[in-house]
Amino acid sequence: MHRVAVIGPTPSRGTLSGEWFVELLSGRLGLEAFSLRPVPGLVLATADAPLPLVARSAGGVLEPPVAQVEADTLIWLRFSPRAYVRDWLAGWFDVLLNGVSGARRRSNRARLRDVVRAFIAMLQRDVVDALQIQGLRAQLLFLELSSPEQALFWVQMQEERVRETEPPRA
C-alpha cells in the first residue's frame, strides 16, 4: 500500500472528515494519500479498468462526475448516523464539563445538521455504486470503515504492522 484514495463521509465535519483521515495516513504512516469528494453519481475508474458504459455519453463527454483513481488502495469512510450522533453528544458533554475550552473544541464536532444529513444520506442511494466497487476490487485493495473509532483503530494497526516489519536496529 503506497498510494491511498479516501472517499470521505457525505457530511464531512471535523474528526469525521476524509481530510482528517488523509492527514492521519500521511502523518503517521507516511503514505501518499488524497481525498475524493463524494458527489451523487460519482464514477470511479482506474488506469487498468475502463470507464463503465453508464459514464459515457454519445458525444464523448462524460455525464456524471468521474474520478480517475490512481491508487493501489481505496478507503471508503462510510460512517453510520450513529457515529454522528455520538460525536454530536460528545461535543455537548465536552461543553458541559469543560466550559469555554469545550465550546471551542465543539466547533470541530458534528452538528445537529450533520446528524440529520447522515440520516437522510442513509435513506438515499449510495454515492458509489456497489457494482463499481466490485469491478474495482480486482485492481484495488478496498476497505470500508464505518466509524471514526474503526478508522483510528485501523490506522493504529497499520502503524503496529510497520513497526513489526522494520528491521531491528543494532
List the helices and strands and how they pair.
Blueprint: E1 3-7, H1 18-29, E2 32-36, E3 43-45, E4 66-68, E5 73-77, H2 81-98, H3 100-106, H4 112-123, H5 130-136, E6 141-145, H6 148-165
Parallel strand pairs: 1-2, 1-5, 3-4, 5-6
Helix pairs in contact: 1-6, 2-3, 2-4
Briefly, what is this?
The protein is built from six helices and six strands, in the order E-H-E-E-E-E-H-H-H-H-E-H. With 170 residues, it is of the alpha/beta class. The protein has a domain at 3-80 and 127-165: Rossmann fold.
Features:
single chain, 170 residues, Rossmann fold, four-stranded parallel β-sheet, 44% helix
Helix count, DSSP H or I runs of 4 or more residues: 6
Globular, elongated, flat, extended or rod-shaped: what is the shape? flat
CATH architecture of the domain at 3-80 and 127-165, please? 3-Layer(aba) Sandwich
* CATH class type of the domain at 3-80 and 127-165: Alpha Beta
Mean pLDDT: 75
Radius of gyration: 18 Å
Order of helices and strands: EHEEEEHHHHEH
Q: Determine the N-to-C terminus distance.
A: 27 Å
* Class based on secondary structure composition and strand pairing: alpha/beta
Q: Characterize the biggest β-sheet.
A: 4 strands, parallel
Strand order of the largest sheet: 2-1-5-6
Strand content: 15-25%
- The unreliable regions are 51-62
Task: From the 3D structure, determine the CATH topology of the domain at 3-80 and 127-165.
Answer: Rossmann fold
- How many extended strands? 6
Give the % helix.
Answer: 40-55%
